[in-house]
Every structure is written in C-alpha cells, then in structure tokens.
Amino acid sequence: MSQPVTCRVFREELFRFQSDEMSEGDRAVLQEHLNLCEDCAGLLELTDRLLASVKEALPREPAPAGLESRIRSALADVHTEAAGGQVVPLRRSWWKDPVVAAMAAVFLLAALITPVLMNRDIVPEPAVFTGTIVDFECDQAGLPLEMQRNCRARDHLNALKLDEGDYVHFNIHQTGYRNLVSDLDVRGRRVTVHGNLHPEIRTLEIIGVEELSGRL
C-alpha cells in the first residue's frame, strides 16, 4: 500500500479488508492501523455485527453476486453522506452513539433487502396489521417492554409484534416512517399499519400508520 493508512483510508478499504480481497502485505498494514485505532476497530465490529444480524433474519437463499460488497461499501459511506458529501475527521467514537448506530442499521437493512426484492419474483400483497412495536431481538429473548425501551444495543431493530405472537418487519423507504425501525421511544406503542407485504420474508412496505394508544 503506497499511501499512509489514515482513518479515511481504512474506511475506504474496509469491505476489501473484511472480504480478503487484498494482498497479505496490504492487509498487514491495515491490521497494524486497526490495532492502534479505537475508532476503526469499533467501525469494523459494528459492520460485522449488523451484517450478521440482518443476514440471519433473511431466508436461506443465495444472494445476488456482489451483494455483500455493495452492503459494506454503502455502510462505509454513511458517515461521509451524513457530513454532506465530505469526509471529516472522527473526533469522537461516533460508532458508540446509539442514534448513529441505529441509522447505520437502517441503511444496512435497506441496502440488503431492496436488491433481494428487485431480483426475486415476489408479488407484494396489500395487508393491514395491528400489533405492538417491539425491539425484535429483546422481545424474542423474553425481555419486558420496559427493558426494551431502555435497550441501546446498536444492532437491534424494531418490528411489529402481532397479538398472536408473530412478527412483521418494516421495509423503510419513506423517511417519515424510519423512526418505526430505529427509535426507542416507539417501543410498546399499539399501532395499525397499512402497506404491501412481501410474505416470504415477512417484510412490509408501509403506506400508513395509525396509533391506537400510548405506551403499554
């Protein structure tokens, strides 16, 4: 690697580093930077955990060629896009911020699900669901809603839990509904959600939301 390894260089090379798409010499140089930089080590951990979490929630079918590389590249660009297209120095450990991490999770989920939907012969079905918004991971673990509202795990996303116990995941393209996926304060709220359901992956494209009551 001809240029010195800075945080910017590491972010640009992150998905190649994780995918073993570089020479042993270049990998060793990046690993040396990784051993000394808390910010980049945290970014690596975050992308690994988010990718593993979303992959586990999807059907066990082959993904389109090159999908994982596109996801990692898109996630690496989140910080750049948030700065208005300019790469800025990381003055603090931004990956520890639950708000930023939640937004990264939303971008990752959208990047993963959208190509899958476009490349599969799935016809969405109009659907209406009534249920409670929960932290999907915490709820599956049996944690009460009060604990779910306080959970700041960076790789946890919200889902709609139906009265019979099933879950519906949100496919968020509209900015106005993104809070349903990432916000802590919506957990425990009863809502009726209208949209188009992709049944094979239990994912709903939201058209409208009606809140039935406050928190439970």
From TrEMBL:
Q: Which UniProt keywords apply?
A: Membrane, Transmembrane, Transmembrane helix
Indicate the segments forming the Putative zinc-finger domain, all copies. Answer: 7-41
Query: Where are the bilayer-spanning segments?
Result: 99-118
Question: Pfam families, alphabetically?
Answer: zf-HC2
> Would the keyword Transmembrane turn up in this protein's UniProt record?
yes
* Protein name, as recorded: Zf-HC2 domain-containing protein
